[in-house]
């Protein structure tokens, strides 16, 4: 039985191929009048033939599935592919009828008139025959028949006249359009004519032609019936297997949309059964999930693997280099060139899903290991070249996307020690040593803050600012404790001649701090830098938050007398969509005013911190301004030594010369909150230092001039 069905299927495929080639051919623009009738008859025959083929395939597919289920016989893969092919071809026939639908409707009156003319020709022949037979009868027989009618006799033979009347009625029904009522009257008259049995005519041929006329007249509904694949709903567990077969066979790519249409016919069956919305949504999710798991997910993985292999063949030594646009296992670009897959409830764009997947993968991998960003950048460009996909350009050509505010806030002590602050560019650059083996530097700037605010909301600025304020308060306490523990060193440096700071024995005192031993000034210097970096972070957070607020609120009115856009839209009688837009506008205005409340100004934050510090007992900060010159000298000398060693560091691969303004920010912050700015200015230390430098430079120039004169005399 199964072998017979599959053998019939092979023969049906060849018949369908010839029908499709014939049905797709368009009507010639120039033809003779005799050719019109031949073409219409051919077109009439093609419509009937297509419907019959679709009906046979529908019956065969449903029968095979039912037999395998009833007999519990497993379906082989090739047989399963044949059933899938039947479903696809049914939807192909439906698609072809839809493409030719307008042309069929335009030619439908001519097709019906031609078929009715054929029926009329047969009935007219029968009518002529009856009339000739009646005319051959004698006048006496006619009078006898007429008198029998008048007397109401029952023995008279009226079959000739009854048959003639029925033929006349049938001809009358064929003179109008092919409506259902006329066809019904025609069939009744022909059945009555056949029951009389007096007239021998082509009853079976006429009956078959009338059936064809009814089919062509109602071809839209009949095509929907014979191409209906709702029986697949009862075999939905096989849906994923069919999708997987279509994906793995690249030659069957064109089947995808047609088979998806067949699976969606189950929704029509459910609606016909008046099921609930939950059951409908459940079947919709099953279809969508099957497409995502068996089509989209493998396609995303295969394209990623293809890009990765081609890019690694360039970067890895010893690998064979190939042309990535011509060499590959399969041509996956065909899948991306497909039109969006249409479902009754949504459209699925394969290219959009693949782009979203690659964007996510490239971003996540480059974020976890930023030194691989070059590889993923090459993969991005290759995807554009080979597959025509323009991916998001969020790969880190500049590493200011590498640091996020949440990550930094959770580890402020490490951040304050490991980053250098540039107050001009408002950016933090990671400090690095050659022993760490890093290939890139992490950067935090205003743009990074804007990105974080876009993701996490403006509330992150308030949270981060509170964390920084807590950190600064703790650092003030640590600095006070440190000065208290080293009060002798502190007083000695205050009273020491600043020109001999480097030779003082207290400067060479070492204090334990973590793994490294720091000098007293260096330890004090590091604490101030950490505080300065925290202040710089506050500035960057404030700037980034304000930039984000400015960008999102540039189209929102700042001052308006309108209390509620939604209420005004409702009062004016606008449609629901306009009222909803008004609600969204009200929400945006409300959020903008809330963000203004969340964003505290930088001076107000410093004022709060200064108020908290003054409440504490920080007596060791009273003369802190006196030690600033020693710290400045230490900072200047360390900077000079760093510049002197540039060449050596460049050769060792450990060269990094970045601007570090954390010390200036920290020192200025302490002087500000302790109100020692005027006391520091009274020292006139900067002017004295400038005079000393000018004298040293003048002395150096005089010495150089004397040496030149001495050399010239020699």
Automatic annotation (TrEMBL):
Q: Where is the WASH complex subunit 7 C-terminal domain?
A: 597-711
Report the residue ranges that make up the WASH complex subunit 7 central domain in this protein: 231-560
Tell me the ranges covered by the WASH complex subunit 4 N-terminal domain, including all copies.
12-230
Q: Name one GO biological process term.
A: endosome organization
Protein name per Swiss-Prot or TrEMBL: Uncharacterized protein
Sorted alphabetically, the Gene Ontology cellular component annotations on this record are: endosome; WASH complex
Query: Out of the domains of life, which is the source?
Result: Eukaryota
